[in-house]
Amino acid sequence: MKPTGREFQLLASVSDFTRHFGFPEPVHPLLTVIDLEKTRHLTPPTTPALRQLYIIALKKDLRGQMQYGRQSYDFSNGVLGFYAPGQLCEGNDGLDISALSGWMLVFHPDLLAKYPLGKKITSYGFFSYQVHEALHLAAHEESALAGLIDGIRRECEQPIDAFSQDVLVSQLDVLLSYANRFYHRQFLTRRTAEHDLLSRFEALLTAYFAQDDGEQPLPTVQYFADALHVSPAYLSDMLRTLTGQSTQQHIHQALIEKAKRILLSTSLSINETAFQLGFEYPQYFSRLFKSKTGLTPAEFRFSVQ
Question: pTM here?
Fold first, then answer.
């Protein structure tokens, strides 16, 4: 979404991006790999940038706080971050990059337009994660990605031919598959933090549906993500890894359980039950209830009487 009432720089191409940050001009028009160690002498721009590009960056030893949205994040340790087109990022002139190392892969969506990866990439939730939800790589994981990045860099340096784009996209596909695997590993190995998040989510979910103070709006994934201070994509991916169900599936499950209680313990009509649960249209409630239980609300009420 375009910011309003603010000055920002639109970066619509890979060349726009490199010029804005003072990086070397890209060899390939749709993709570039930047060695961050060679950018230490540059002063990070302070003008917010709206980037219409995909960016994957491994940053090490970035000292200070990086502003992202309304929060600042510490990047002193090496982490892998993912940024989708349309995200606004703000620089910070207090950032110390004197010891910065790592790499940054920048590519335009047009690179993927005619390939299955162009659609598949939108299914990777980590492009919508917040900065503090970045991927912390183990040494062997970092080494595996470094090999892939070297291959992409070498391919970019070759003269463009009929196979160049096929090779680059296939290498990107492998890199993203590895990243997906490594995020799955992180959800499992950081069990204490993730199980604490799971416990807090379950408590919020239980408390929300325990309310009996009349009609209330249907809870959204965004509602729980905001309450837990995580992104909706991160919350759903974490829950799916630990429980096999997304946030929306958990919400529906709790909703159906409350619906059953109302149907069995009150004389409310089906329409009144739907309104009590926050549905604007009762037919949507009946459709969801049947999809989850195999019975309509009326059939369920009759079957247990």
Answer: 0.67
